[in-house]
Each structure stands twice: as C-alpha cells, then as structure tokens.
Amino acid sequence: MNRTLRSLAAHVLPPALTLIGALLFWEFWVQWRDIAIIVVPPPSAVLERFLDDPDFFRRHGGWTLYEATLGLLLGSSFALALAVAMAHSRLTERALFPLAIIIKVTPIVAVAPVLVIMFGFGTTPKILVAALLSFFPMLVNAMTGFRDVNPGALEFMRSLRASPWQLFWKLRLPSALPYLFAALKITYPLALIGAVVAEWFTGDRGLGLVIFVANANLDTPTLFAAVGVLALTGVTLNVLLYLTERRLLFWHETIRTIR
Amino acid sequence: MANVRYHVSLRNLTHVFQDSRRALTALADVALEAVWGQFLTVIGPSGCGKSTLLRIIGGLLRPSEGEVLIDGAAPVESQRRRDIGFVFQDPALLPWRTVLSNVRLPLEIDHGARARTAPSPEELLELTGLADFHSYYPHELSGGMQQRVAIARALAFDPSLLLMDEPFGALDEITRSAMRYELLRIWSAGGGAPSGAEGQPTRRPHKTVVFVTHSIPEAIALSDRVVVLSPRPGAVRAAIDIELPRPRTQEMERTAPFLDYADQLRNLLKEAPA
C-alpha cells in the first residue's frame, strides 16, 4: 500500500507540479499585464466557467467521445481485417496498400465537408471522419504485428498442422498485441481530433460545436474550458490504455523492462 | 520393398535452395536409415544442412530430389497422425502462456483421437521435472528449463518419432551436459510408439529420435548411431555405431571407449577440404 502510494506520487507529482506551475504563471501573467479576457482568459475564469455548468461540458464531451470511440472501432475493424488479408498475401498487400495510402494523405479537412454532403448533419459523418483518421496507423502497425511472429513458434505450429485460423488466434494475434496497443495510443487521440473537426463543420452537439460557437462569440472562457476538457479526455484515455496494456502484455519486453 | 522396414529412411536426398540469383545446394545425395526406437544423431559443422535435413524428415520442407519415408510413407502422413514431435534450438515458447498452457497447446490444436492415448500435460511436466513450475511464464525460467518445456510440448501427442534440432545449442556448457542425461532419462521413461500402430508388431521400448548437433560428446553420449555430414553441400561421410552400454552416465565421458569414439569423430569431421 505504502509502496503503491509512493510510486503513484512519483509518477503523478512531477507532471502535476509542472502543470500547476504553468497555470499559476499564466494566471499572474494575465493579471499583471492586464490582458483582455477576449484575448487570453485567466485560468480562474476558465475554471469558473466550467464549474458554472459542468453538465454542459459533460454532455457535449460525452457526444464527442461517443463519436470518436465508434469511429475508432469502425476504423480499427477495417484496418485489422485488411491487415490480416495483407499479412497473409503479398498480392493483397500490393493491391490494397496504395489505396490505404490515399486515405492517409488526403487532408481530413478536405474530406469532412464531402462526408457531410454525403451523409447529412447527423452522427454518421463524424464517426466516419474519426474512422478515417484512425484507419492508417492501425493498418500499418497491425500488418507489421501479424508478421512479427517468432519463426520457431510458427514452425512448431506448422509441424502440428495448425490451421490458418488457429495460427491467427493462438499465435499471430497475441504476437501483434504490442503493436496494436502502440497503434491505439496514436489512433484514439486521432479519432478524438477527427470527431471534433467534423463537429466543427456541422452539427448540433459535441465539443467541436462548443468550440466553434464560443470562438464565433469571442467567448474565450468557454472555448478554453472545452479545450481543457478535450485535453483531459485525451490524457484519461491514454492512462487507461497504458494500464490495460500493462495488464495484458506483462510477458512482453517493453512492459517487463519498466518495473 | 526391402525386408526391413525402417522407421526413417532417406534415399538420394538432394536439396537445393533456389532464389532468383543463385542456387545453394544444401544437401547432396544423402542416404540414411533409422530403425524403430533408435537414437540417431546427425553431426556436422555449421551450415552443412543438418537443420534442412531435419525439416525435410519432419515434413516441413519438400526436398528437391529423393525419397523420404517415415514408417513407409511420406512425412506428411506421420505429420497428419501427429506422430512427429519437434524440438528446435530456440525453445520458441509462447511467452503469454504459462508452462502448463504451453505444453497443452498441441492438444488445443488437435483434440483428436491421438490426444486421448497420450500422457496428460501434467504427466509430461512431471516427466520433464517441471511439475513445480506449471504456472510460471517462460520469461521466468532459465534457458535449460525453457528447453524442458519445449521437450514436454513435443511429447504432447506421444509421437513415435522425435526430431531435435540442436536443442541444447544455446545453453551454457554445464547445463548442456546435464541436459543430455536428462534427455536420455526422459527418452527411456517416455516409451515408444503406442502399440497397434500400423505395420508394427510390438510396442517399442523407445521413441525413435533423430538428433542434430555439432557437439561430439553430445553425439556420443546420446546415440546408438552417429551419422557424420560433410560441409556444404551436406553429404554422408560416415556412420558409426556407438556401442557403449546403456544407461549412459556422465562418468562414461572419461572412459577410453568414449574418448576413442570422440577421436574417430573428430578425425571424420576434420577430414577433406572444408
């Protein structure tokens, strides 16, 4: 117990102190230079705005998180399915990889309006934008992961005449897990960005909308509060991913060496 | 068909690795036989195609030319009956599985008829001296212990043929020489082909083992017969029967007959242009 507390303190305290220091500096700087609130609001005003109606932020943040998560699931599923096909056949890889690159290099701000035209103002285009953004990193990582299999283990499974299905579930997928987690740490925040960008263009809810409206009204405390909530969501997701990874990948070098 | 039905028989076996730029002959006209229950070792310098030979016997690789018969049929047949056990130099255990779960893996892949006659994973751990380690993960074990797990795993279907590719090659010298006698103990305790197997009148006392190594003492201590391969391309240079009594012990390694065999093998390995 004492040790857990101490390790928690060692991990949380330094960044927390840095953050508090930065916020204090910001607060005093704004007060001292007497900067107008529409230019930069002091943290106290942002916090006040948040505490004024936390439910407002929770509601909109919840929507954004919902869209991002669905988009992530959709994009990852497609990426995983494609990665399986590509890892098994070079021909599939040659046929499909260029298309995947097109998806990657097309700027999402250019695609988002098109998706809105195609799918309307509802949740669908937001989920799709989030899916598009999370697709490529997951594809590349999963492909590498499915191929990065211990050759001896593969040989042994072959000597047992394991079916491709068994090879996948018992060997390839677990071997790829470290890569999949590495991808998730990139794609979840990306999906969040995708959802916000899509909300920005259209929509009646979500943090993207809140930011857009607050920006138009020069309501900087709301704007900053929304940005803060977004940042906090991203951090929380990363911490959750990290903890899950540690539980699941206890056997992997990357986890074993950080003890 | 010949009068004697060998367990393993290779004839005119040649294997060429071919890629777009060059061809590499790994094995040239190899002939070799192992009778039922024999401990046969193939010895040769690195790169003489020993591993290739083993993979061909195990049905993992199709030879360019020649005939491979396991119990009178193609290796794939034995593989299909799960009658071949493989141990590689790299234990290649699945790191996310416990020792017990690694040994159980083959049974998960085929829960067929053969699995029912075979010893249980728990019995195999007992046999290989791992009973107390069943819930450990591979990274918590030493190299020697990991290789024991790999041996237990290879025995999961109680195969009549065990193929071992330098299984102790990555171990330190002390562990390595201990593992030799450990393997012999397992081999004598493990039993041979289950009775009633086709073309087999009686139950054999031992499994047939084809063991690949480049260690001379290892080859002598373990084997009934040692086949010496020449380097690149691998061809059979000689075959020696090791007529030391069994059970073999570590003390025998210092006796005159053992050392004579060692000299003989050393000369055979030295001979001819490298």
- CA-based shape of chain A: flat
* Named CATH topology of the largest domain in chain A: MetI-like fold
Q: What is the element string of chain A, with H for helices and E for strands?
A: HHHHHHHHHHH
Share of residues in strands of chain B: 15-25%
Low-confidence stretches of chain A: none
What is the strand tally of chain A? 0
The helix-strand sequence of chain B is EEEHEHEHHHHEHEHEEH
Helical run tally of chain B: 9
Which term fits the overall shape of chain B?
A: globular
Radius of gyration of chain A: 22 Å
Fraction of helical residues of chain A:
over 70%
CATH hierarchy: architecture of the largest domain in chain A: Orthogonal Bundle
**Helix/strand structural class of chain A:** mainly alpha
Largest sheet of chain B: 6 strands, mixed
Describe the structure.
The complex is a heterodimer of chains A (259) and B (274). Chain A is mainly α. Chain A folds into two domains: 1-35; 42-256, Orthogonal Bundle (MetI-like fold). In chain A, 85% of the residues lie in helices and 0% in strands. Chain A has eleven helices and no strands. In chain A, helix 9 runs antiparallel to helix 10 (220-248). Chain B has 274 residues and is of the alpha/beta class. Chain B has two domains: 8-83 and 159-270, P-loop containing nucleotide triphosphate hydrolases (Rossmann fold), CATH 3.40.50; 93-157, no CATH class. Chain B has nine helices and nine strands. Chain B has helices at residues 50-57, 75-80, 99-109, 113-117, 121-127, 143-154, 173-190, 216-222, 256-270, and strands at residues 8-18, 23-34, 39-43, 65-70, 84-87, 161-165, 208-213, 225-229, 236-241. In chain B, the strands form two sheets. Chain B has a six-stranded mixed β-sheet, sandwiched between helices. The longest helix of chain B has 18 residues, at 173-190. The radius of gyration of chain B is 18 Å and the shape is globular. The A-B interface holds A 150-153, 155-162, 166, 170-171, 174, 250-252, 256 and B 55, 58-60, 79-80, 82, 84, 86, 88-96, 105-106, 108-110, 137-139, 153.
